[in-house]
Write a structure and sequence with these properties.
The protein is an alpha/beta fold. Helices cover 36% and strands 14% of the residues. Helix 4 links the parallel strand 4 and strand 5.
């Protein structure tokens, strides 16, 4: 099973299409049980995802591979390496475990800053102590990979990848990472739910890309495949990708995602590729 369960909704109200808010603790526990039942073995979270880690710890994550992310060290900190180790200790405590599968830096440029070597050394120490199996970075753009892999050995990289954002493939980094033995996790298959919205429900601030939405909806109307199936089938079709991280806000929605991923036909995909970061980087949407 290449799907991984993203749990930002367990700690925050997240996603442009989210109508139900933060997932309740009882629902989160039921979702984790369903994930285990259908063969999902990887859970993605982050220290910055509000109550997500505490929620996961309360529900119990034994048997899952857990990947979390460390936020950037505060400006002016004297010992960034110790700060990373302290963050990891607190994270393990919230999660109720002694070790996790992966620890990523939420902002990869930490490695290129003043404390980069100290931070990396701490990541290595956590790995050597057995608290973490794999270390790496979460990136927003493949541009972030131009320098870091030359300076540091990474085990795991998480990056956005979707029908609209194909930069990981078009830049060659998808194959380069795989050739280097790096585990690859992708996210944003639904572009925070934007690709799943009906044409009428697409917020007006995304009207600069009306031609893209028109192509998308015309393609869907001419193929026997749902938007959900297409959005999942595209990243799942790449053998280089180890896990496709998907978020859900209910058991019902997670079950829908699983069914869509299990029954998604291969297809000749529509040309939706876009490199405008105002669209493909959700952190910029508030500027629209």
């Amino acid at each position: 099973m290449k799907l991984a369960l993203g749990t930002v909704q367990f700690g925050l109200k997240y996603g442009i299409a989210n109508q139900s808010g933060q997932v309740m603790r009882t629902e989160a526990k039921a979702m984790l049980q369903l994930a285990a039942d259908i063969g999902i073995d990887t859970i993605d979270t982050a220290i910055a995802y509000g109550e997500s880690e505490a929620c996961l710890g309360e529900a119990g994550i034994q048997g899952f591979k857990l990947v979390t992310k460390a936020p950037p060290a505060p400006d002016g900190i004297a010992d960034a390496g110790r700060w990373i180790r302290d963050q990891m200790a607190a994270s393990l405590d919230r999660l109720g475990v002694n070790s996790i599968y992966g620890l990523l830096l939420h902002q990869s440029d930490q490695l290129l800053g003043l404390h980069g070597k100290d931070i990396y050394h701490s990541l290595q120490c956590l790995k050597e102590s057995g608290q973490v199996k794999k270390i790496g970075v979460s990136v927003y753009s493949p541009r972030e990979l131009e320098v870091i892999p030359k300076l540091f050995c990474l085990d795991l990289v998480q990056a956005p990848f979707s029908l609209v954002d194909r930069r990981l493939q078009s830049t060659g980094w998808l194959q380069r990472l795989k050739d280097a033995g790096v585990e690859i996790h992708t996210r944003s298959a639904f572009l925070q739910g934007l690709l799943l919205m009906s044409r009428a429900d697409t917020p007006t601030k995304f009207s600069p890309w009306n031609a893209l939405w028109d192509r998308w909806n015309q393609w869907l109307s001419g193929h026997e495949i749902s938007a959900l199936q297409a959005c999942l089938a595209f990243p799942l079709s790449f053998p280089q990708i180890d896990r496709v991280v998907v978020g859900a806000d209910s058991v019902r929605q997670l079950a829908q995602i699983f069914r869509a991923a299990s029954n998604a036909p291969q297809s000749c995909w529509p040309d939706l590729q876009c490199e405008d970061e105002n669209l493909i980087n959700p952190s910029r949407w508030h500027l629209l």
